[in-house]
Specification:
The protein is α+β, with helices and mostly antiparallel strands. Strands 1-2-8-4 form a four-stranded mixed β-sheet. The chain has a three-stranded antiparallel β-sheet with strand order 3-7-6, with no helix packed on it. α1 links the parallel β1 and β2. α1 runs parallel beside α2 and α5 packs across α6. The termini are far apart. 17% of the residues are buried. InterPro entries: Endo/exonu/phosph_ase_sf. This is Endonuclease/exonuclease/phosphatase domain-containing protein.
Length: 241
Amino acid sequence: MGNLVGISGLAGFVNVYGPQPEGEKVKVWEELSTIKRSRSATWIFMGDFNVVRCPEERINSEFCHRSANAFNNFIQDCELTNLKMGGQRFTYFRKVGAKLSKLDHFLVCSSYLHVYPLASCYAMNRDLSNHSPIILKPRYDDVGTTRKQPFTKLIARRKRLRRRANACQGRPCHKERRRAFTTLVYDAQLRRAFTTRNVYQGRPCHKGRRHAFVCRNLTTRVLMTRNAYQEIPCQERPCHK
């Protein structure tokens, strides 16, 4: 029992080492339940519980449904939460048979999650022991897993395009490519304008009526100017200066 930063009142830390026999494990769960109900505090149970919660937490070893059900019932009855774990997927490794299991857990009560709703734990790399050390992280940002930043792919693609554009500026074909691209964009805009004019012509109440009206007047002025200039000799046209 002691004090924890951000927690009002007492905080209880219980280091657990679960036994191997199934019957002994049930007795440990009952004892932990009694400890939690004996005193009002913010409880944190941590350590090697020597049990998994589902078949996905064990590889190359037999999964015991009774032990898993008893452990899950203990967590549910005590209103505890198994924190999400980052880092290593499994916390126990045995060379003989290449057995992998997730035996270490952090179980916290609701009062702890009320203060640290994004709490998690992190499984570090093994060194001397066959178990991976796990540490408690009050915030999810502290977990060592990589989080995807927004617009990461878009920013990377933009940088690649900018590098290509800078590399292409010194080539003789750069101006031609830019001119061809501008022509394609202009043609697309012109086709869209004529399509809008043809679709929205005769619909004055439609949302695109202003755009259609502008396109129609612009086309009319261009045609009138062309016809008028065709009747004037080339030398007498003022725009040819």
